[in-house]
Write a structure and sequence with these properties.
2 helices, mainly beta, 2 domains, 455 residues, 27-stranded parallel beta sheet
Length: 455
């Protein structure tokens, strides 16, 4: 990853002696100047602290803002606490740099709102631990960078609970961009968090990666929803992971990835490719209880669209999950390229999946359509206890020959299915074949039922 910038905050004029500040302490929010301190934001404005490090959160106007509180926390030792009341905090002076351990507690994600108005990123965490609870972070924005609302560098830790990260953006003008909601290069844990409605705009030749989240470090998701995030590209790039892109280590526990979309266009720079509308993975994923629902990848050009729910790419990709549900995901290749693996797509690496449900997914293409439910181009896949039903591989042109409405095995190293039902799947179009399982690689079947697939 490229190096990330840090934001240097200006200092105000010095205040009067601390001896005159006793009355100020009671309402400006200082609990202690020795060790950890507590500050209470009592202003929705965005103004710097008058003298960071004096132990008093106060602007020149005598109020404690969120920015001023963080500046004080950065200058003090100890793990400090900032409380944000109900109402909206307007970020207008650029991102807030977090450089010391701090906890920011809001009154609830529907009550305490931090809004950057698409003027900047909200928090940039560098060499610190940031805990966030009960906040709604919205309308952050970066151009040619990573992390529209939040960026966490490789030396930092972010812990977010009971919060919402929403309506933030990344825009590519000259380089690729990542993580419209959150970009994590360090260690991040999200618990009871919604990452929703964020949007990434890829430009000509530039890749868009992680409409909701980009992870290059260690990421744990607990009872978290990643939904309605978007990647829109003009052409010539590689667009992947509208919900989440993972290049690091990802642990999943009760996670819903739903309604995320990639739309890759055709431009003077060429056609854009689509990979992993829900989750794109080149790292390691472990855990369980993952729902992939209603994610859509659309490629308008002659390249490819693959992995509507989950796409695993590269030989180092590793996935071990128990409890995976992929329903209603779609891959649409409107050009003469490939439309593969609407539910789950594997191109290299290893995937071990237990208790898998893949129902109602559709892979459609004017070129080649493979694997409505699951497509394995390469790598090793093991599925134990699965139900793969009512998936469709569909040709959108007369010359299209779709294969494997339920499962398509192209040139996989090894695929093993144990205790799996493959039923009522379809391959639709001229020359359609193998509505249930299409076999082009090494396949081992143990107690597998195939019924009512067409053809």
């Amino acid at each position: 990853m490229k190096s990330r910038r840090t934001f240097c905050l200006g200092r105000g004029s010095r205040r009067a002696a601390l001896a005159l500040g006793a009355a100020l302490l009671s309402w400006a929010g200082l609990a202690s100047t020795a060790g950890a301190a507590t500050f209470a934001d009592n202003s929705g404005s965005d103004v710097s602290d008058a003298m960071p490090g004096d132990g008093v959160c106060s602007t020149m106007a005598g109020v404690c803002t969120l920015r001023a509180a963080v500046e004080e926390a950065n200058a003090l030792s100890g793990a400090d606490v900032i409380t944000v009341p109900s109402g909206m905090v307007h970020i207008s002076q650029g991102e807030i740099a977090v450089a010391s351990n701090v906890t920011v507690n809001g009154a609830g994600s529907s009550k305490s709102i931090v809004d950057a108005g698409y003027s900047s990123r909200i928090f940039n965490v560098t060499g610190a631990v940031l805990n966030i609870s009960g906040l709604r972070l919205q309308r952050g924005m970066v151009v040619d960078d990573c992390g529209g609302a939040l960026y966490v560098d490789s030396t930092s830790t972010l812990v977010v609970s009971d919060s919402v990260i929403t309506h933030s953006r990344c825009k590519a003008e000259s380089v690729s961009v990542q993580g419209a909601g959150l970009c994590n290069d360090g260690q991040t844990t999200l618990t009871n968090v919604r990452v929703r409605g964020n949007r990434l705009f890829g430009g000509y030749y530039n890749d868009g990666d992680g409409g909701g989240i980009e992870n290059n470090g260690d990421l744990s998701l607990n009872h978290t929803e990643i939904s309605q995030n978007r990647i829109t590209a003009s052409g010539g790039g590689w667009e992947q992971g509208a919900g989440l892109s993972n290049y690091g280590t990802l642990n999943i526990n009760h996670v819903v990835v739903a309604g995320n979309r990639i739309r890759a266009g055709v431009g003077p720079a060429g056609d854009s490719s689509v990979d992993g509308a829900g989750i794109y993975n080149e790292g390691t994923i472990t855990g369980g209880d993952l729902t992939l629902e209603g994610n859509v990848g659309l490629a308008k050009g002659s390249t490819y669209a693959q992995g509507g729910g989950l796409s695993c790419f590269a030989s180092l990709s590793s996935v071990t999950l128990s409890g995976v549900t992929a329903t209603g995901n779609r891959i649409i290749a409107k050009g003469d390229g490939w439309g593969n693996g609407a539910g789950i797509h594997l191109l290299g690496g290893t995937a071990v999946l237990d208790h898998v449900t893949a129902v109602g997914n559709q892979a459609m293409s004017r070129g080649f359509a493979y694997g409505g439910g699951i497509d394995v181009e390469d790598g090793t896949l093991t599925v134990t206890s699965g139900f793969i039903s009512r998936n469709i591989a569909k040709g959108l042109a007369r010359s299209t020959a779709p294969f494997g409405g339920g499962v398509s095995i192209e040139s996989a190293l090894e695929v093993t299915l144990t205790d799996v039902v493959v039923s009522y799947n379809k391959a639709v179009g001229d020359g359609a074949a193998d509505g249930g399982i299409s076999i082009g690689g090494l396949l081992t079947l143990n107690n597998v039922v195939q019924a009512n697939n067409t053809p």
